[in-house]
Amino acid sequence: MELKNKASACVKALRIVDLVPDPKKAEDYEKKGKELRDLAKDVRDREVAKAMRQVAHQYGMARVEAARDFGRVAVWVKGTVTNIKTLKKACA
Question: From CA 74, how far away is CA 72, in angstroms rounded?
């Protein structure tokens, strides 16, 4: 397992995330969440790894939230956007 530097990990992570989350893509997000968790394991920078795990967690919640009412979906989208912004900031 090769530890990735911050720059290469961030480039890969930001290619994985959708900047406009859509709960209808729950299956895609499960796959993307796994990719982000796997990538986070290999990143030296703890802040970046944590931000990746937070987005992965939000993505993992997509299916559950999509099955609930619209208000919960809005909360999920807002939380996901916040975590993506945190990832972008950690990568800056």
Answer: 5
- Given a contact cutoff of 8 angstroms between Cβ atoms, the answer to whether 51 and 43 are in contact is no
Closest to 28 (Cα-Cα) out of 58, 51, 59: 59
Per-residue pLDDT band at 1 (split at 50, 70, 90): very low
Helix (H) or strand (E) holding 80: helix 70-91
Is the distance from CB of 87 to CB of 17 less than 8 angstroms? yes
Q: Following DSSP, what letter does each residue of 8-58 receive, concatenated?
A: HHHHHHHHHS-SS--GGGHHHHHHHHHHHHHHHHTBS-HHHHHHHHHHHHH
Which pLDDT band, with edges at 50, 70 and 90, does 3 fall under? low
CB 10 within 8 Å of CB 91: yes
